[in-house]
Amino acid sequence: MPARAQVLRVFIAELERLRHHLGAIAGICESTGLAVAASQAEILEEDLLRASGALTGHRYLFGLAVPGGLATDLSDDACQDALRRCQATLRQSDHLWSMLRLSSGFVDRLEEVGVIAESDAREHGLVGPVARASGIARDLRAAQPYGAYRHLAFFPVLEREGDGYARMRVLFAEARQSVGLMEQALAALAPGPVRVEVPARSGAALGAVEAPRGAAFHWLRLDEDGKVLRYRIMPPSFTNWHGFHLAVEDFAFQDLPIILATLDLSVAENDR
Amino acid sequence: MTGVPPLAAFAALCAVGIALALVLRSRHAPLLVAWTGALAALAMVGVGAAALLGSGPQVVQLWVVPAVGSMVLAVDPLAGVFLIVTGVVFFAGSIHTAASLPPLLGRYSGRAYAVLYLGLEAAVAWVLLAGDVFSFLVAWEAMSILSYLLVTFEHQEEESPRAAYLMLAASEAGALAAALGLLLLAVSASSTAFVDLRLAGRAAGSGLRLATFLLTFFGFGVKAGLVPVNVWLKDAYRAAPGPFVPILAGATLNLGLYGIFRVNADLMPAVSVAPGLVAVAVGTVSALVGILYATTENDLKALLAHSSIENAGIVTAAMGAGFVFTAAGAAAPAAIAFVVALYHAVNHALYKTLLFVGAGTVAERAGTRDLDRLGGLVRRMPWTAAAVLAGVLSIAALPPFNGFVSEWLTLQTFLRSAELPSLGVKVTFALCGAGLALTAALAVTCFAKLFAMGFLGVARSPEAESASEAPASSLGAMALLAAVCLALGVLPTYVVPALDRAVQPITQASAAEALVPPFFAGSRGHDALPPAFVGDFHDLGAQVGQRLLPGPGLVLLHRGGTSNPVVFAAAPAYLVVVLLGLLGLVFLLTRAAPRRAVARRPAWDGGIRRLLPEMTYTATGFSNPVRVIFDAIFRPTTVEDTRATVNEHFRTAIRHDVEAVHVVDRLALDPARRTLQRAARLLARMHHGRLNAYVAYALLSLLAVLVAFSLGR
Amino acid sequence: MSNWIWRGLRSGVRTTAYPSGDETAAGVTPGFPRAAALDAEHVAALAARCPTGALTAESGRIEVDRRRCVHCYRCTRGTDAPLPWADDYEWGAAPATSHATPLGSPFRGSLHVVVVDAGDCGACLHEVKQLASPYYNLHRLGFYFTPTPRHADVLIVVGPVADQMRVALQKTYDAMPAPKRVIAVGACALSGGVFGPSYFSGAGAAGVLPVDVEVPGQPPPPLAILHGLLVAVGRKVPASLGPSRPTTPAGAR
């Protein structure tokens, strides 16, 4: 894959991560009933959706990544524009975080609620921000660097408590980190092609990326004509759903929606 | 001697019944008990009515026991009240026996049951009619032993012998204490007859008063079910056989209350406020503890047992208020308090019997006593459900049933503490009044749970799903009790004067005068009411019904001074009329409204495939908030044991054990037991087996005697 | 807490002017390819590039069936003759098979919506949720989300209707009181999208329920879903989605 495509893919992936994390933060604020914070986070998320749509044509970045690179080139100016919007969003997000940190009623509902111990997280193989909040410092971008992540400075965010508050801290820290990675990627962007032709070959392959919710694994088998014979997906929430019961045991019934929001589990990823 | 013919009839019926029971086969026992028990109960009611409404107390000489005195029967109005209600309870209970005893005949002897039952009926009547200490104690012992034998009737069950033995031990301890108290009084009176004790009671010194009060209060309190001496109650009620539990709850519990009332209100009226305050405090604590445990209990019989403790506590608290008012010299409030106490005792006996008959029927037909396994019975047992609903509304103190009147009057009595001089007493009354209000609220929760989880909703077990309607005799018993409950709730203005006949000789003040103003023109005393007052209430309709019904009126009203003409008032009879009118109006409106198409659809279940009975609200879940809030009282210890496979994934089973020690055991009885055992262990150090030391003990005691002897000279 | 009030007030009004005005911000809609006339050699090649068969070649013209478009952009990226693009967002349409009239008043200003996720990938559901965000705020129109179908007037279906969700979807629809309307949102709910019909899912909501409004797109932006709701109550005119072809079983494309 050409270098420009790899760097742009990192840029796009981190844009997606930033947008997803702000959506998760909005979900947590909504679950605790802090309506103003939820609205603020939703505003930021929609800002990023519109930035994604303006940059790539689609709010959820569909139709961009193809085998061999990107379907279309993104101009440097457009990327700079998107980065500026993300930086502005990050400033707002930092301000939101500073206010949330000091809202004791809000923090009370997250602190020491929905605790997943590190041993439990390790045993169940949890992934993503949920695992990183429970003391497991595993991020595929650092553990198995792929694409342009090999050349970028990156340290996984780690928290130890494993409660809802730790997971929220991980989300905010990773959002901050994403903007930093986007800046690094843009600085490393060089002109060039964004796509090479990839001949179809029979065989099987496994791909692993750090999706916003955690490690996602895709495995496929092609036949000689390049048609897909088998495709298997292991999405991050599929594993994390198995850890859900660990977080809710011993807590009150009223905490259940909040714990669910802090775990940010996707139903669609369970139905793969 | 108007009380004698029914008395003779009663005694004859019991004797004939016992004789027939010994002669006939076991399988005839249910019908025998039903007929003779019911007829004897009617005779008992006759005796009671004659006693209550007759001209005055009468004394019937029975036998003369050398060196002790003569055994007499005293037929007085107080005994009459209890005789009437006990008679009704036995009547309903006997009819119920016809249906509930046959299932037990396979394993146990019906003959024995019949003999014991009729013997108990006689013993209970004898306790109420006893006119001297000796016959009272003999009757009490007979009643205790017969109750024990009946509780342990299902002796092959695991829990019966233990529970019954505990009951016997507690009963005997209580009887011992009560006997001691009565004997102290008898010694000071140099006679055993109650009439002489009454005279001596007025002249007793404070030491004797205190001793007698404490001994008889806690001694009779065992039978009445007061904290902390009611350890036996829950287990005994659970273990007692189905036909007997209604009697146990409706008749024998009242005997404890009767004993307390007789000694401390009749024989030895209070002159200091201390006994009354003790009674009020113990009553309130019993009520609170009883209803808390009832609310969180899932076993039907245990729930009703705890509720019995609660109601006994309320009666005791009302009695205590009466003692305090008597000591403070406020005769009219004392009369009101005593009438209220008797009213609540009567009401409780009626609706508790009704509920126990219902619970027994449900347990037999639905196969289980666990509220978490019942449900949906209102469709399968509609008449039983209707009768139990009447009982539930009564015990939850909802108008128009009788529980409402007595609980409302109890709380009003406690508010009358404004008429007392001492601040400490007022504060105690205020706190205890608040406690009783809390118990009333918890009682509504508890019995809403009982009816909703037991009868409404979906059947939670296959046995509950296949339950069938109760047999006719049980339904008849329940219907009778429900009707009496309704009558006592709708017509309190007839009940209060009747109870007043028992209370007035004791307090020398008339509660009827204080509570039932004669609004009906033409009734006695109508002209003595101030015309302005009568005019105001005639505008409100207080004279409605005067052509139809005799008596002073249908409004319960306590009058105050000029600045506060009405202290409290209620008119359940008019309330019923208005209620029926409103219901009728709603019915007519729904009929008159244009018909709209009604679409029936299955219940919305969130889209899942099937709604299971386990998904409905359970009794445990309903009472969980109470359990959590009052956790400091319940203090359960939980033990959780989980089973898992493969690295803690995929649980196969979870076992959850909850153990709770009753708060009274934890705070009062266990420490007392531990102290006793510690003391015993200390004393046991004497028994070390060394002969030399034993000889030394003998020498030391000899020396001590010599020293004492010489000093004494 | 006073901080939050100040913070909220300082954010100002972000809500879109739609439906009383037009929304012109960038990134609010992915748009759709537009039907266009092309020369013969490109027409066939372009029609074959579409993975879901949304492009039909007819005598020198490419027609776009919006119901099937899954926004893969293959018709406009990586090809010599890219299709022109339409950046509108008023996509709500009434299918020919539906005979239901729009819900008139009082629903025009007071509508309750129940959303059922019948196996979607999460994008359509996320866009539906965005309707409650400050930018779109459907509450100002009197529209509300309700969790129970008993209170709902409109049922929004997203997803191709996975077989596991058929019963639940049917039960939800049956539990709604009349009058009720069904809005199928997203390419999956209209034609099966990238999933169906297959061994585990159907070809959209039409196979299970009577659909009254169709909102195409993968996913349709919140403005398009809003347009669909307004069509359902009769406040907006339905759009046209292009010629439709019956959905063929998987593998026959």
Characterise the protein shown here.
- The complex is a heterotrimer of chains A (272), B (713) and C (253).
- Helix content of chain A is 54%, strand content 11%.
- Chain A has 272 residues and is mainly alpha-helical.
- In chain A, α1 packs antiparallel against α8, α1 runs antiparallel to α11 and α3 packs antiparallel against α8.
- In chain B, the strands form three sheets. A two-stranded antiparallel ribbon of chain B has the order 1-2. In chain B, strands 3-4 form a two-stranded antiparallel ribbon. In chain B, strands 5-6 form a two-stranded antiparallel sheet.
- In chain B, a hairpin with a 6-residue loop joins β3 and β4.
- Helix content of chain C is 21%, strand content 15%.
- The N and C termini of chain C lie far apart (58 Å).
- In chain C, 51% of the residues are buried.
- Chains in contact: A-B, A-C, B-C.
- At the A-C interface, α2 of A face α1 and α3 of C.
Short structural summary:
The complex is a heterotrimer of chains A (272), B (713) and C (253). Chain A is 54% helix and 11% strand.
Measured by DSSP, the beta-strand proportion of chain C falls in 5-15%
Helix/strand-derived class of chain C? alpha/beta
Helix percentage range of chain B: 55-70%
Spatial arrangement of strands, main beta sheet of chain B: 1-2
CATH class descriptor of the largest domain in chain C = Alpha Beta
Oligomer: heterotrimer
Number of strands of chain B: 6
Question: Helix fraction of chain C?
Answer: 10-25%
Shape of chain C: globular
CATH topology type of the largest domain in chain C? Rossmann fold
Tally of DSSP β-strands of chain C: 10
End-to-end gap of chain C: 58 Å
Helix and strand pattern of chain C? HEEHEEEEHEEHEHEH
User: Spans of chain B with pLDDT under 50 lasting ≥5 residues?
Assistant: none
The average pLDDT value of chain B, as a whole number, equals 90
Number of helices of chain B: 27
Cα distance spanning the termini of chain B: 61 Å
Would you spell out the secondary-structure blueprint of this structure?
The complex is a heterotrimer of chains A (272), B (713) and C (253).
Chain A: H1 3-32, H2 35-56, E1 65-66, E2 69-70, H3 76-101, H4 104-110, H5 118-124, H6 128-133, H7 140-143, H8 164-187, E3 203-211, E4 214-222, E5 228-234, H9 236-242, H10 244-248, H11 256-263
Antiparallel strand pairs in A: 1-2, 3-4, 4-5
Helix pairs in contact in A: 1-2, 1-8, 1-11, 2-3, 3-8, 8-11
Chain B: H1 4-23, H2 29-53, E1 58-65, E2 69-75, H3 77-100, H4 110-129, H5 133-151, H6 159-189, H7 194-202, H8 206-224, H9 233-239, H10 245-267, H11 273-295, H12 300-327, H13 331-366, H14 377-380, H15 382-395, H16 402-415, H17 423-455, H18 462-465, H19 472-490, H20 492-507, H21 511-515, H22 531-540, E3 556-559, E4 566-570, H23 572-592, H24 619-629, H25 631-634, E5 637-645, E6 649-659, H26 663-684, H27 691-712
Antiparallel strand pairs in B: 1-2, 3-4, 5-6
Helix pairs in contact in B: 1-2, 1-4, 2-3, 2-4, 3-4, 3-10, 3-13, 3-19, 3-20, 4-5, 5-6, 6-7, 6-8, 6-9, 8-10, 9-12, 10-12, 10-13, 11-12, 11-17, 12-13, 12-16, 12-17, 13-15, 13-16, 13-19, 13-20, 15-17, 15-19, 16-17, 16-19
Chain C: H1 2-10, E1 32-33, E2 36-37, H2 40-49, E3 55-58, E4 61-64, E5 85-86, E6 111-117, H3 123-130, E7 143-145, E8 154-158, H4 166-175, E9 181-185, H5 187-191, E10 213-215, H6 222-233
